[in-house]
Every structure is written in structure tokens, then in C-alpha cells.
Amino acid sequence: MERVLEPEVMDSLEEAIEYDAMDFTEINTAFAEEAIALAPTEYALVLDAGTGTSRIPILMCQMRSQWQIIAIDLAESMLQIASHHIKQAGLQSQIRLELVDAKHLPYADRQFDLVVSNSLIHHLPDPLSFFSEIKRVLKPNGGIFLRDLFRPADEATMNALVDSIGKEYNEHQKKLFRDSLNAALTLDEVKQLISLVDLQGVEIYQSSDRHWTAKRCWSHEN
Asked: What is the reported pTM?
């Protein structure tokens, strides 16, 4: 199936509220647990690209009280809700929200110990620039944890996945999911992009019936 792009930024407050209301607790917790395992247990500076409403950075900081996370998004409405969640969790000293384009990061070279991103890449028309920026801002042996949907091979697989998400999702939410699957990369496309920017030592694999993961463990050689 050919890739069909969806809007890069979901920036109406209504959409952000609807997105935030969807229950991804189990998925987010699994992501946070796997991500923190890839970096030092003591202090780390982490970039979360496409933070959305910052559910994942909150979970990560609750598990790692020494960490600092810069959480970025291009959607002001998402960051507005994220700010509320961070204040509720009392994590304003650990998580800094910034309105930033992940394709053009305003950060220094080799600044971060870990870069994480959940479900951002399918929104990007040309993800190569994002992968290039990851390599630039990450310390040479820094950790990487990226996860996103992958594009199904055919319409039948797509329909089965959309039908599987449950009756608790309304028709609009199911349409958003279908649009995201259409906009997602294939596993081979992800491997090619990571190879093009020469990110070394990254393990890339299918991690569920709909997700791919790319990860690399932080190394003491930094």
C-alpha cells in the first residue's frame, strides 16, 4: 500500500482533548519502562520528540527522579494539556515543555543522553530530517527509543486492525487510527532511513501487530 499523509500537526483543542481522553495507559507504561531501561539510572538529559500531552515523560520521571526531560511538540493545544498534567503530577522541575519542530531542533550537538519518541514519525512528510537531527543532538553513544505504527501490507490487514481496537472507540477515533496506519512507514522504510543517517547499533524490529520499535542502549563510552 502507498503511504497517504495525514496532517503533521493536530492543533485544535477539540482534537487534543479527544486524543488525551483515549486510554493508552498500558501502552504508555510499557513504553516508559522500556525507555528508562536504555539509559543510566542516575542523571540523564532526555529529549521526548512529539510529546503530545506528555503522559510518557510523566511516567518516566516518576520512575527516574534524577532525570530531566525536554518534551517538545508542534501543537500548542497538546502542550496546553501537557502543562496541566505536569502540574498535577508536581513534575515542573523535571519536565520542560517547548514548542519545537522535531525536524529542526534548536539544541546543541551531542546534548542528550537519550532520545525517545512515540507515534510522531507517521506524522512527518519527510522523516529523514528528524532522524538526522536525532543523530546530531544525541551523544555519540546515547540511547534511542522510537516507536510508531507501521503501514499494513494490504487493505484486509488494515481493516482487521481498525476493527480490533474495540467498541470503546467512536467512529471518529477509528478514522484517526486508520489515517495514522495509512500515513505510517513500513519496517523496511524505517531501516533505510536509519541506515541513511548512519545511526549505528540500532535494533529495529516489529514489536506488536501494529508497531515497530527502534532502540539502542546508552553506553558508558560517552
From this structure: 0.94
